[in-house]
Write a structure and sequence with these properties.
By secondary structure, the chain is mainly α. 98% of the residues lie in helices and 0% in strands. The chain has one helix at residues 2-106. The longest helix is centred in the middle third of the chain and has 105 residues, at 2-106. The chain is rod-shaped and about 140 Å long.
């Protein structure tokens, strides 16, 4: 009977260990499930961020092209203004030079 009692105690300890291990396994499974859901949310956020970065890159390229176009137009406008100023200076110089020669030749 003592031997039977020792066997029953051992059996109950094994059942308690099994129940404890089962409880731990359930806790681990729940923890893994929660972490998997968190990873899914993180992946969705990463995809959203990547799409936002692509869109921002496209906007930056568009704005850079716009800035380069604006700078080119400003340079062309500046060149036109300089050309007009040079033409005016040349015309004034020709008129001024011809008047000086007219005064000398009339004497």
């Amino acid at each position: 009977m003592l031997n039977n009692r020792i066997g029953m105690d051992a059996l109950q300890r094994m059942l308690a260990n099994i129940h404890s291990a089962d409880q731990k396994a359930d806790d681990i499974n729940l923890n893994i499930h929660m972490q998997t859901e968190k990873m899914g949310h993180i992946q969705e956020q990463t995809r959203d961020i990547q799409s936002e970065l692509k869109r921002a890159g496209k906007f930056l390229k568009y704005f850079a092209k716009s800035v380069y176009t604006d700078k080119l137009l400003m340079c062309l406008t500046l060149l036109c203004i300089i050309a007009v100023i040079i033409i005016i200076i040349i015309k004034i110089a020709k008129k001024g030079g011809s008047k000086a020669t007219d005064v000398v030749s009339s004497n």
